[in-house]
Amino acid sequence: MNTQTKINRKTILDIKNMKTQGEKIAMLTAYDFGMASILDDSNIDILLVGDSLGNVVLGYDTTLPVTMEDMIHHTRAVVRGSQKALIVADLPFLSYQVSQEAALVNAGRLLKEGNAQAVKLEGGREHAEIVRKMTLSGIPVMAHLGLTPQSVHQLGGYKVQGKKDDAAEKIMKDAVILEEAGAFSVVLECVPEKLAAEITCTLSIPTIGIGAGVSCDGQVLVVNDMLGMNDRMTPKFVKKYAHLSQEIKNAARRYASEVKTGAFPDADHSFK
Ligand code: KIV
User: Fold this and answer.
1) Are 75 and 87 in contact (CB under 8 A)?
2) Is residue 52 lining ligand 1, measured as CB closer than 6 Å?
3) N or C: which end of the chain has fewer CB within 10 A?
4) What does the pLDDT look like over 88-123, one tens digit per residue?
């Protein structure tokens, strides 16, 4: 396993070419070494060290408490566990909104210390200038429009965005502005599929949807959700490809029972 991103990984050019060639992009979140190595061996093109880390790994109600230190720590683990996928790391809440200088320094830290290849930030045209600056400084940026969880209090909850014409128009315009500023791709979260299809046709960079329909150039899900690793309510757009929480409970209960009855360890699992 490597400790630095190696050049034989997928690059942002490979990801952009996938759109040109009509090949769909499969992206999943990852937060640790073990899961990253399994997903890297499973045809996943992009591993996103999302700030959903806060919800699914650290147990917060929102992504707001996640720190730069949290993101760097987990990004390094994901990089160590993978060799092929492009690694994108989220800039956490208030790491890029306070000043352009701080934004550039923090994005740089995700590459220099976290060993990510690209960063993701949430929001529209208000971040165009910093996206331009990062791109010109050699930091590839994935944009994120629609439902932006870092603004959950401003949005009044986790709701579908861009349902009304003016809201849809704003998201479309933001996407165009961010592409012009240099973003290499854009996540569209919880927007009507028709709007996502129109944005996908308009942009020359790939769109990656989550709750945005099938027309996007790629899809992303939170890995813990798609593996059914928790019993909490999952949004409508999450398809569970496994039910690991039940599997893990069954295994742990069998183990506990065998420990208590003395059935484990048996002769096969002991040294003579
Ligand atoms: O943090 C995250 O996991 C994300 C994805 C949901 C796109 O931003």
Assistant:
1) yes
2) yes
3) C
4) 999 999 999 999 999 999 999 999 999 999 999 999
Looking at the structure, do residues 226 and 251 belong to the same domain, yes or no? no
Pair 199, 258 in one domain: no
User: Residues with Cβ < 8 Å from 165, sequence gap 6 or more?
Assistant: none
Relative to beta strand 207-210, strand 185-189 is parallel
The answer to whether residues 261 and 215 belong to one domain is no
Ligand 1, atom 1: closest residue by C-alpha:
50
Mark whether 46 and 113 lie in a shared domain: yes
The answer to whether the CB of 114 falls within 8 A of the CB of 93 is: no
For residues 53 and 117, state if they share a domain. Answer: yes
The answer to whether residues 178 and 267 belong to one domain is no
Q: What pLDDT, in 10s, does the model give residues 128-138?
A: 999 999 999 99
Residue nearest to atom 4 of ligand 1 (CA): 50
Q: Could you list the residue range(s) of the whole structural domain that residue 256 is in? A: 243-272
Q: How far is the CA of 266 from the centre of ligand 1 (A)?
A: 44
